[in-house]
Amino acid sequence: MTATLATVPTVAPSIGRLLRDGAVAGVLAAVATAAVAATGQAAGISLDVSGAPIPVPGFAVTTAIFATLGLLIALALRRYAARPRTAWIRTTVVLTALSFTPDLLADAAPTTKALLMTTHLIAAAIIIPAVARRLR
């Protein structure tokens, strides 16, 4: 009696699926960050930084821009990293933590700073896992 071990070839997810899922996550994150900013503003949290208000749509636009940059990073990691998913998660967690620096240094009320950092966490919580699922 002989046992045969069948191996399943590992197929990397397509670039199209990575871009599609990343774009959908980016749009969802943009909507979510704008909604959180609007909710915070409605609850009385100022969106003023250095005396100038951040418009609520600005949260969506900025999120979309950085989601696009994140997708470019994911594409590079997919191509060059030995373990793209692990590299993606590590890279984006570090970048998310670094994104708090401008918020902490901003000339803004503590509640405004907390709201800004919350929007970063929400965007990261939506985008990071969506893209990670499409990296091998």
Automatic annotation (TrEMBL):
Q: Does the keyword tRNA processing apply?
A: no
Name this protein carries in UniProt: Cell envelope biogenesis protein OmpA
Q: Which residues cross the membrane?
A: 23-44, 56-75, 87-106, 112-132
Q: Which UniProt keywords apply?
A: Membrane, Transmembrane, Transmembrane helix
Question: What is the superkingdom listed in this entry's lineage?
Answer: Bacteria
Q: Please tell me the species this chain comes from.
A: Kribbella albertanoniae
Q: Enumerate the Pfam families for this protein.
A: DUF6069
Q: Which InterPro entries match?
A: DUF6069
